[in-house]
Amino acid sequence: MVGPGRTEKMGRRSLLVGGVAAGVGAAALVGSTRDPVAVEMTAGETDPGSLLGWVSVKAAPFNAQGNDTADDTAAIAAAYTAAQQQGRPLYFPPGEYRVRSLPAFDNYATVFGAGADLTTIIHAASGTLLTLKNKQRVAIKNLGIFSLDPNSTAVVLDQCFRCSFDSVVFRGNHTSGTHPRFLPQRGVSLINNTGGTSFVNCDFNNYGTAMSTTAIQSYIANCKFTTNWVSLLGTGNNFASGMSLANVEFTSDINPKTTSVHLLVDGRANDWWLTNVWFEGAGTALQIGKAGVGGPSQFGMVNCKVAARTIGLDLMHCRQPYLANVAFDPDQQSTPRLIRIDPNNVPEGTAVNLITSQGADFPLNTFPRGWSVQGRGKTVSAGGGPIVVSPDGKAWRLTISNSGQVSGQNLGVI
Fold first, then answer.
1. What are phi and psi of 79, to 5 degrees?
2. CB of 328 within 8 A of CB of 366?
3. Cβ(266)–Cβ(235) under 8 Å?
4. Euclidean distance between CA atoms 216 and 44, whole angstroms
5. Residue 173 Cα distances to 142, 182, 386, angstroms
6. Could you tell me the superkingdom of the organism this chain comes from (predicted)?
7. Tens digits of residue pLDDT in 276-286
8. Handedness of CA 366, 369, 370, 372 (dihedral sign)
9. If you ran DSSP here, which 8-state letter would residue 41 be given?
10. Which of 49-58, 82-91, 285-294 has the lowest average pLDDT?
11. Is the peptide bond before 330 cis (omega within 30 degrees of 0)?
12. What backbone phi and psi angles, to 5 degrees, belong to 243?
């Protein structure tokens, strides 16, 4: 187990978040090697939340302690009731708030902490910390959530729309040292038609599954997933689960007990779009679809970096994936297969300017015959050659024989 005072060798750009025991303070920084420092206001100092008209959970008559010892569940619930009645935001000053659960915030509620490393909500029970059902535009900002129990879930959103999490650190207890005890532990679960939810500037660390979705399109931007067994899971096999990711990092170490797969879509799904996303430190970086069952209706990667120990990108079942400006590398001390494509269930797709550190270019037999591939000054179709249009508007697929003779197949007007 890695905790305060101990570190473990890391892969490039990776941070191994310390999986700590239940009694250890939860405000430790990611990768910190020293004990957390409690932040308290000095005598006579004004709580900034009160200046803004927010309802502070530490104010009388609520009197949450935030000392990582007292059970603050009831005090926080009472403070939220007051905030709801007054139409004001709920505020958590610096502290470590040990709770069994949080209240089910109502539509349009806003919850603030003092900062993701200053305010930590410690979930000291099994089950779910926060469940929102049929809610809209709940906003949670600037705090940390630390999950202790192996069978706990931090947040469940059920039929919710336009909720948002901004600068929230989600942290569990999974590491290579605690494997497999915390594999059931989950960070965020999006279910039952939840959509339009955004996660911005958030961290998801040390969970069995950091985030899972069976729901329609939501958004992850400027976030980082570190040291999770499964970082992001699209599941349900229901044509619904989808996600848009931009400027996101998925990292881990190279221990096989730490991270199995970063992004897994395990059946029929909706749209998955990735832009400027970095992957490293997993057995498989991306596993898309389940062969013979289904996968995303659209899957696209643009300006991404993929490294893994065993397989970089595993396209098992997907409709016409699109890959552009994606760089593929092996992880440290490994020789992975950088791209694997199931020719029966991913027969067509597009690859543009892919980069590999294992050669000048990917060999054409990497791609099934129906794929269109462009790179290093050449445009080819793995299915027989490029398509050109003659002056009369007809399309022709060009092929070349072993002797160099060029012929054209008339495809008509397409």
1. -65, -40
2. no
3. yes
4. 49
5. 21, 6, 52
6. Bacteria
7. 999 999 999 99
8. positive
9. P
10. 49-58
11. no
12. -160, 145
